[in-house]
Amino acid sequence: MIAMSQQKTPSSGWDNSLFEDVSEDYSPPEAAPSNLPEIPQNSSEALAQLVRDGEYSTALKVKKDLEQLGISIEQDACYLAAALRSIRRVPRSPVNVLTPRHIHLFNAWAALVPATPAVRDDPFFQYAVWTKGNPHVTALQRSALKAAHMGYATQVGPVVVPYLARYSSTRAITRFMVAFAAADRSATTSTRQHKQTFKRLYGIAVRSLCFRSQARAAYDLSRYAKRQGYTVNQFTLRLLRSAVGTSYAEGARKLGRQLCDTQKELKDMPFIASRPHLLRRFQKAIDKGHMPTRHALRDFIRQCIQHRDDEAYNRLFALFQEHPTRRPYALNYWASVEIDYHLREGSPDAAFQAFYEIFHIDDVPQSVRKALRMLMNSKHHPRRRPKAVKDKIWPDSRVTVLFWRTLLPMLSPSQLGQAYSEFVSRFSSMAERRAYIRNPAQVPPGIARKMEKNLTDLSANRPADTPPPYTGHHFRLFLRAYAKLHNTKAIMKITRRAAGTKWRASRADVRVIAQTWANAGSGRRLMFLLERLRRDAMFERHTSAVDGYRDGIRFMMQNQRYKDAAVLAKQLVRRLKHKAASDPLLRLLYARLSERQHAKKAADSPREQPTPSHTRQRTRIGRDTLAPRHTRLRA
Per the record, where are the segments of Basic and acidic residues compositional bias (predicted)? Predict the structure, then answer.
């Protein structure tokens, strides 16, 4: 630095010999990658990012703002997710179909998806039935075919096909089904899945045409579907035969013959495969650490029981029992399939005995253990294992659900109450024990209290690494059992106790609750229960409190309890902001209430008694007699 300071200022720059040689040590460091999220460059990228993040409501608002401002939106394949979501929320019901709002949203989002060459070259768009149709229907057909070419016919078909079959011409729906099937066939690699999907979709289209009184078009579509290999089910064939009737005798005769052939095929359906072949396939799968499908395993058990093939049955069970890596899981898998098979065949004793042979029975209520031991010595079980299972295991939640589902209908009301108390005790002890395993330093107060009272903690004998035997789905079994007894107080306790679990009320649960209160409860109590479920967010994804209120109103009206139905309707409109004018059920309720009110007023008001004819004559004579004399003379 001193030498540099003494040197005169050069006109051409500093002398580089004064510096050290440039090496890799002085290379500039590379810029570290930034962890900050990428900022969209324009509004179209921002909209696409919202759709990718799943913020569909915000994306819809942004899309409307961009359209109002006249800003063009670039096409992107991610918008297909928003289009599918707009029709996925349509209720799956024969009455509820696509509304204009759903169609507009689906078409608007699908228009932003770039068309593939397969869509542009689809011959369907060259037909006159498409070019001269209703603009809304044609746009819906184009959007559905675009989704089908991308492999989403299974999600779009069950919603779009009924609408098109109702509101488009018969030629158009036939052409559309041909193009729709071809698009899915080119996009789907699984031929079996494609066949199953379009057997269902052709059946939906045929039934929709029958409801439109287009029996001949429905018959032609069913015949074309059969030629293409998409045979509709027996229910659709019966409906079509009744719709055709005597108007088309030849078609009715062919449908009857096809229905007989279908029933014969179902009756004489061959097995999936022979038992030795299935046994070899299962052995290869188990050696690789895999499990056979439940359908194939159930079919193998059925064949062994029907043909009394004890050798094949015991050989396969030994493979499951001696599984190299996952023995408890393998035995639970086998037991769930076998118990489910016995329940479908109507043999609960065989299901109980299969449970007794494989699992520990400490999780079983004490009153049932003696009955299980007695069943062990009976001959109801169609298959007896040569010897007891070595080292019995603990059942998982799937097996216990099957067991309790079989057990509860056999219990009396008092036994059901005892079983529920024992189940709640075990469920609580299981939760406390799991909390104790997670944090041994803090002993839950429930375990200490049970130790003081010398109560038997049946779940304490289970190893820590075993899966939990109970879940929130077990509460659903008790809810259904008490609903058959019309016990509303017990249902209130069950829903209150299940609030801390992962149980969520499904659509069927809400219907069962509403029907129970309509038979043996008050409308206000049902209203309190639905409000508590809504407050605690205890409904499943596709279920809401509106469904519970509407079910309650419907069942109350069926039982002629219009006052309770009016209470529920008032709460539905006031608290949930439900629009009564757009709900046909509420309109029917108000009409019934108005009729009853008019009938009551008519019954309470005094009726005018008709005056007899002789009284009217006597009155007229008396009036003439009392008139003045000059008036009578003038007359």
Answer: 597-607
